[in-house]
Amino acid sequence: PSLSRGPSGSLGDGIAATSSSATPSGLGQPPVLGQTGRTSSRGEPPFAGNATTASSMSATRKRGDEGVQYFRQEELPEFPQQPTERWLGDVLKRLANAEDWSVQFDAIDDIRRLAKHAPKILFPSLRKAVSQILELSDSLRSGLAKNALRCLGELFARYGRRMDVDVDASMATILKRASDTNHFISDEAELSLAEVFRSASQNRLIPSVLLSMNHRQVRTRQRATWCLVMLWQRLLQQGNTKDVKALMDATSKALSDANPHVRSLAKVAASLLHGSNLAPLPVRLQEAADLTVSELDAFDLSSLQRVLGQ
């Protein structure tokens, strides 16, 4: 599955409406946008204009974040020839080049290209790549963090349960960035968070959700409760309802949270449960199940907003 980069919702402070690739050395020169400083639009070929080398793109980025171009997954060009292990090693070195953020930005795009077009080449070094991408996702440079978060979501989409070993570390980082007050970062993190919950093993997600729902920060609890809703919908759709008592207890607890947005999201979860075959439901959950969720896509914040009537 590919990540959707179209209009979406965002949790923001509650449930409020809101709204990439360098040329690898030694692998030819796929056409990319010229150095115009504008991002590719939805309606035009994303890689139009003169060919641009990785070094010249990096030079442009050194002047400031405004020249950075973020590519959707479907815009990432294929490799003109099969990447080699040696070239992959160079990509990993560039990811670790803390002296030049533009080099790291280009390397992130190369990891994204590998995940999309040559996943078998990347897989033996996946753990090392994920570790570096996680570190960059927490970068103070917002442009770098945004691209790394996008990459992280795409890695989960591509490798699925093979990313299970990275769930705990990824959840900690993505939830932190999704709770950021800067929507430039939080919106991207929310897209990646949804991809984690589409792709990773459910049993690996449950402990992270339960832990995060007890977080002292309200914004983190809001997003953790959204994670609970996504997890419930996935569990119920797949009929995997064993050992869910802890999740039911967490849902009941969230209904009494001091924050109204957490309580609203918990009501969505309760409504999902009420329409399922789980029995018997605690009275607390039955009483809270007053929302129509038959058309809910819990992974789409716009759909969630519609259910909540906002």
Distance between the termini: 28 Å
Query: What radius of gyration results from the CA coordinates?
Result: 20 Å
Unreliable parts: 1-7, 16-64
Outline type: elongated
Short overview:
Helix content is 54%, strand content 1%. By secondary structure, it is mainly α.
What this model shows, in words?
- The protein has 310 residues and is an all-alpha fold.
- Helices cover 54% and strands 1% of the residues.
- Strands 1-2 form a two-stranded antiparallel ribbon.
- The model is unreliable at 1-7 and 16-64 (pLDDT under 50).
Give the helix/strand layout:
Layout: E1 9-10, E2 16-17, H1 54-61, H2 85-95, H3 101-117, H4 119-122, H5 126-137, H6 142-159, H7 167-178, H8 183-199, H9 202-212, H10 218-237, H11 245-254, H12 260-274, H13 283-288, H14 301-307
Antiparallel strand pairs: 1-2
Question: Key terms for this structure?
Answer:
disordered N terminus; about 300 residues; two-stranded antiparallel sheet; elongated
